[in-house]
Amino acid sequence: YTRTYIHTHTHAHVHSHAHVHAHTRARTRAHTHTHTHAEMRPQLSIVCWESDPILELLRSDAGEALLAARSTSSKWEADGHGRLLVPLVSGRACLPDLYATDKNETFKSNGRKFSSFRLLAAAVSRSASGEVLRQERVAPALSSAFSIKTQRALNDYRKAEYPHCSDMLTKLKYIGKDTAEKLKVVKKQHMPSVPDELASVRTVEELRQLMAYADRHREVENQLQEVLGMKGRHEHKWKHLRSVLDRTVYDDARYRVWYADSARTTGLVFKAARGQVGLSKPEGLPKAVAQADGLQCLHVLPAVDASQLHRLREAAEAAWYQPGHRGWEVVRGPVVEHSQAAQAAAATANSSISGPTTAASAVVHTQGAVSTHPPWQPESRAGAPPDMAAAAAGGGGGGGAR
């Protein structure tokens, strides 16, 4: 059987054939006002609520019953027509672990396809001859709407929306193991015209580079869509993949600096890790120093006045959450930290005796190049959810931090 799940927003969950999930037990209650509880039982079937009248979907195009159950403590039985019968005890029925034997694409009726379903529990009884009879005086029970997904589709729900550049391709939605294997030998077996550096695509960043190359070469774009299976009616997957790759996250440990005034005389320096700015822990005060080669080097000086540091930190955090991150910049040159700045100053003072030296000759932290679009998100405020901090950081555009 296809491993298929039924997800609902009510108490009726249908689990897969291969796995039992303990997140919810499926239970339906059927109450009657008769004195023949032991003779009655619920009859379960999948119905399409969107149709008028309500349609029971009992079998797939292959003739297989769509609703089934595994053997559990519940003494259920199939009626031979695609419905399940479960016992009623003291006016209450406990559903077994249910699963659907096929996926949505095969659920048709009179040429129509349906994507939303409900579980119907109707009261029935058996006649003396064993025939199953519907008890019309007892109103049927209906679950809320649910959809039926294969295991592969469920895996897509857990795929990254903001993938890291070093993630494997299977972290991306619509890319499974088979597609990832094709991309490993994309030049040799599928797209011989791509450059050698793109001959084997294994990571998110390599796929992003391949798609950027395809943007400049239409024939390569068509070939790549073929390899990914994202042409024609599946072109929406191609558009989704492009949008996700545009949100690729890169390692970014460059310093950030915030200036309180346009003259850039007062401010604070902050460290960052993977684009997350440590707003709660400023490193010190910034001071730009010209090097021997004429370039600027940022010295980080210790803050002596604790009250001043506190006021500046609060102002820097407030500015970060304003549109455009007013006053914030990414430090793109070398940085000299606290004690190192003192060493550099001493080296400069001694240069008249021992000969010319460069203030940052041995104490400078160089910063490697990163992507042109890393995530500019600070660490979360205390008590605030991370997504709130990320949303605030993304507000506005055109600021120095971007």
TrEMBL record:
<dbReference type="GO" id="GO:0003700">
    <property type="term" value="F:DNA-binding transcription factor activity"/>
</dbReference>
<protein>
    <submittedName>
        <fullName>Uncharacterized protein</fullName>
    </submittedName>
</protein>
<dbReference type="GO" id="GO:0080142">
    <property type="term" value="P:regulation of salicylic acid biosynthetic process"/>
</dbReference>
<feature type="region of interest" description="Disordered">
    <location>
        <begin position="365"/>
        <end position="402"/>
    </location>
</feature>
<feature type="compositionally biased region" description="Low complexity">
    <location>
        <begin position="382"/>
        <end position="392"/>
    </location>
</feature>
<dbReference type="GO" id="GO:0043565">
    <property type="term" value="F:sequence-specific DNA binding"/>
</dbReference>
<dbReference type="InterPro" id="IPR012416">
    <property type="entry name" value="CBP60"/>
</dbReference>
<feature type="compositionally biased region" description="Gly residues">
    <location>
        <begin position="393"/>
        <end position="402"/>
    </location>
</feature>
<dbReference type="GO" id="GO:0005634">
    <property type="term" value="C:nucleus"/>
</dbReference>
<dbReference type="GO" id="GO:0005516">
    <property type="term" value="F:calmodulin binding"/>
</dbReference>
